[in-house]
Amino acid sequence: MTHPEGEWLHSWIGSSDRDRITVAGRDLPAEIMGRLTLTELAYLLITRREPTAGQRRVLDVVLVSLADHGLTPGALATRLTYTGAPEAPQAAIAAGLLGAGSVFLGPAGDTAQFLSDTLRRRDVVADVDDVTLAAIAEEAVVALRAAGARVPGLGHPVHKDIDPRTPRVYELAAAEGLLGPHLRLLAFVGAVHDEITGRHLPINGAGAAGAALVDIGIPPTSVRAVVLIARTAGLVAHLTEEAIDPIGMPLWLEVEERARGGAPSDG
Known about the structure:
There is one protein chain. This protein has a 3-stranded antiparallel sheet with strand order 1-2-3. The model has no long low-confidence stretch (mean pLDDT 93). It has helices spanning 28-32, 38-47, 53-65, 73-84, 89-97, 107-121, 130-146, 165-175, 181-197, 205-215, 223-244, 248-259, and strands spanning 14-16, 21-23, 26-27. It has a domain at 107-222: CATH 1.10.230.10. It is built from 12 helices and 3 strands; from the N terminus they run βββαααααααααααα. The termini are far apart. The chain is an all-alpha fold.
């Protein structure tokens, strides 16, 4: 995007002056506060349009599904950082978010990009038929395996048979009429991979979430960042719990004891 000389330093997202605050080009107190939820505002800011009721519901479903997944490395990073710097909650939250990668949370973005690129190369339209999607899935899986690469969106370190979030994402997207080509392609990718390899890898919740986000209009390049909105809520909860019922210090002491070759503590 080009701007007149001297007018490039601006943003549509938000601004403020002495008497007014605008977000998305709208008056924040009068036109947004009390009218849009955080989910709706996030969608508006990312896509520059308000979501339909169905798009808002699917985005909510995705955000809720990714808010927390237990004492993951990211949650532990948040808790341990808080143990060392309780005066800096922002550092603890940032530490937890930094672990969003290829194993935890990051597959949402990886899967979204993989599915989007695969469909774009084939100029696939939204109402593509199942036969075409199955053929595309087989071609994509074969190509990835030939390159020695893993298939994004498949497999989970805990859920070996089925990720319980995945069927619910598909169910609710279908109920809203938003079971689009990315979610549908991912289902075929999972089936084709099982058939070719003879080994079952479930579609993980992050992969299904990434596919769902692209189907509702979130740019694939933004998906990994969008899911951080969800995980931030979970990490704030871990931070709050850590302040009340800490495990960071006992965990550190346990590791320290084991590193010295001592016996694990009882508590």
